[in-house]
Specification:
Structural class: mainly alpha
Helix content: 55-70%
Oligomer: single chain
Strand content: under 5%
Largest sheet: none
């Protein structure tokens, strides 16, 4: 056979379904909650498409279609997640001891939260009160999952895992961001059910949950800034995770501004009536404050990712770390522009929405290509660079110079 024929056959073999999949069981065995990131990114894009006040013809229908894609992705990921627990229970339980993959458990309630948002935006206008009931039920399920994540994942970090300052990444945020994301969903649900007593419960719980989660997120950002200043940037395999700070800051800005705006309708009478008059304006001010903090992290992430791409950035599921954070950041800007009536914010948010759509198409293409060949199922994300430094065994000499040796070398240099 000629060289041309061999190369053509080789190319056709690579295009076959599962051509790079070592074992079909790996689809379940190597499944990680990070796959819920696809539903997260698609869901927030669907919400932004339907939420923008400056719409193009057919944009609402596009958002509606993307919401259904989100539902399909969430259901498919849930089936694989449950299958892994049924078929490989020991491997599934080990995730709680893993210092990286355990964080992705927070992706599950975040992804469900985007479905709740889409239900309010697309289903409720079509089904009326039945759509509201669906949104309420899904929100309560999501609330329980978010509380479980915010409480349990940090405890796993403390008691079951090993971490060090040199390995702090923004992936830590995924363990506590669900509390902020579900509060944002609650802020959208509360005004829809404002004339029922249930709305006050949603408002109170959303405020309490964001109070529990957002300060933890800010604490993690302090630790991460400490790491990048005194140590080094994350490995290039996970450098896209530098966009993750936009998740709590964007969702937090959306939640606080929207909860403040909804307060006047949720508390029309009673002791809270005297306080809700200023809640709307205060929510907008705090929302812009958080969004501005998020803009710094956005600029920082763009810079470090652009530098990493010049050196070659291998594709993995971590690239989806851009989609939801940027979508939440955009949703917050759109909401602030609507509440404050500032048209430039609305226009910029609309531009961000279409930029997210373009990025989503690239992510979807690269992911679908590797799912088709099975490449993404061959093993979990390579995270050796994220793990704490290995403790040296007794009697093993360290390859790193001691503090005394560094001082001696510096003195020799000066002499």
């Amino acid at each position: 056979m000629s060289e041309g024929g061999k190369s053509k056959k080789s190319l056709l073999d690579k295009l076959k379904p599962g051509s790079e999949l070592r074992d079909k069981r790996d689809v379940v065995l190597h499944f990680s909650p990070s796959w819920f990131g696809l539903a997260m990114g698609t869901g927030i894009l669907a919400f932004d498409m339907g939420f923008t006040p400056l719409r193009f013809p057919g944009q609402q229908d596009l958002g509606w279609a993307l919401w259904w894609v989100t539902v399909v992705l969430f259901v498919a990921a849930s089936v694989l997640f449950v299958a892994r627990w049924v078929l490989y229970p020991k491997d599934a339980r080990d995730i709680f001891e893993h210092p990286v993959h355990s964080m992705f458990l927070g992706c599950i309630p975040i992804a469900l939260g985007t479905i709740v948002d889409g239900t309010l935006l697309f289903i409720q206008p079509r089904l009326g009160y039945a759509g509201v009931i669906i949104a309420i039920v899904l929100w309560w399920i999501d609330f329980v999952m978010a509380v479980a994540a915010v409480l349990s994942i940090p405890l796993c970090m403390i008691y079951l895992q090993s971490h060090s300052m040199e390995t702090v990444t923004c992936i830590w945020l995924l363990g506590v961001v669900p509390g902020v994301a579900v509060s944002a969903s609650g802020s959208l649900l509360a005004p829809v059910i404002a004339h029922s007593g249930h709305a006050q419960v949603v408002e109170y719980l959303s405020l309490a949950l964001i109070g529990a989660a957002l300060p933890l997120c800010l604490t993690i950002l302090v630790l991460f800034f400490n790491r990048i200043v005194f140590h080094h940037l994350p490995a290039k395999e996970v450098i896209v995770s530098c966009f993750l700070p936009l998740s709590p800051l964007g969702a937090g800005a959306l939640a606080i501004s929207q909860l403040g705006a909804a307060a006047k309708n949720v508390f029309p009478s009673g002791p809270m009536r005297e306080y809700v008059r200023m809640a709307g304006g205060l929510g907008i001010f705090l929302g812009y404050f958080l969004w501005g903090f998020g803009f710094w992290w956005f600029a920082f992430a763009c810079f470090v990712v652009a530098r990493a791409m010049r050196e070659g950035l291998p594709f993995n599921l971590g690239w989806w770390s851009f989609a939801f954070p940027f979508g939440a950041f955009t949703a917050a800007l759109l909401n602030l522009g609507i509440l404050s009536g500032w048209v430039p914010a609305q226009a910029l948010g609309t531009g961000f929405t279409w930029a997210l759509f373009a990025a989503w198409l690239v992510l979807l293409y690269r992911t679908a290509k590797r799912v088709w060949t099975g490449q993404l199922f061959n093993g979990p994300l390579k995270d050796a660079a994220l793990l704490p430094p290995r403790e040296e065994e007794e009697g093993e000499e360290s390859e790193r110079p001691s503090e005394e040796m560094r001082i001696e070398m510096a003195e020799l240099d000066r002499s």
